[in-house]
Amino acid sequence: MGLELYLDLLSQPCRAVYIFAKKNRIPFELRTVDLLKGQNHSDDFVQVNPLRKVPALKDGDFTLAESVAILLYLARKYEAPDHWYPQDLQARARVDEYLSWQHTALRMSCTRAMWQKMMFPGFLGQRVPPETLANTLAELDRCLQLLEDKFLKDQDFLAGPRISVADLVAITELMHPVSAGCDIFKSRPKLAAWRQRVEAAVGEDLFREAHAVIMKAKDLPPADTAVKERLKPLAQLFL
């Protein structure tokens, strides 16, 4: 059995892995894991990833969890062009710096914004207090400012003149609040120009393909009682 990627494109790190593999023509078998249906808790999937999270990778008898680890494994094994994860010590350190920061900063603020603005009221039928949403959007705005000032600066991409895995991880995060109707690029021309460069480097068709699921999430039918109960512990993290 060749390379298998277990993904749900509703998930932002899954989209980063998907785009990277497709862009670099890495042959893989897509194993879709529907998070909203709880398929990440199935016995079959737990054999692949006991953490019960996507993305996950299976390469023969070797399994791997965590999106950053998967991206770097693919970059090394398939010898992706150097700009994705540079050999230069300091250039690579810049990519690593962003990947280390985003887990507890941009990831959570983007996820909370999407759930509070779209998934709670539309999918779960749950009211979000206006002050809670306002605080979340303020935190998102703070993270976006840090993204511009600390990482992007006056460069074309987050870690230098060419696209890297840092840009993939960042743009897939930002599309979460965009899918919920947050126009986060409107008042940020520098960030908007960066988004256009990332889309062009990836390819617009691939970018749209990877984000088709999340951009249609607003049209999901309301969750039934069983789904609401299953998602309750996760949902509490996003309030």
UniProtKB/TrEMBL annotation:
Superkingdom field: Eukaryota
Enzyme Commission number(s): 2.5.1.18
GO annotations of cellular component type: cytoplasm
GST C-terminal domain ranges (all copies): 88-222
Coiled-coil ranges from the UniProt annotation: none
Chief location of this protein within or outside the cell: cytoplasm
Molecular function, one GO term: glutathione transferase activity
InterPro entries on file: Glutathione-S-Trfase_C-like, Glutathione-S-Trfase_C_sf, Glutathione_S-Trfase, Glutathione_S-Trfase_N, GST_C, GST_C_Theta, GST_N_Theta, GST_Theta
Catalytic activity: RX + glutathione = an S-substituted glutathione + a halide anion + H(+)
Record bears the keyword Transferase: yes
Keywords: Cytoplasm, Transferase
Pfam families (alphabetical): GST_C, GST_N
UniProt record, GO biological process: glutathione metabolic process
Gene3D superfamilies linked: 1.20.1050.10, Glutaredoxin
Location(s), subcellular: Cytoplasm
Domain GST N-terminal: 1-82
Subunit relationships: Homodimer.
Family: Belongs to the GST superfamily. Theta family.
Protein name, entry field: glutathione transferase
Provenance organism: Muntiacus muntjak (Barking deer)
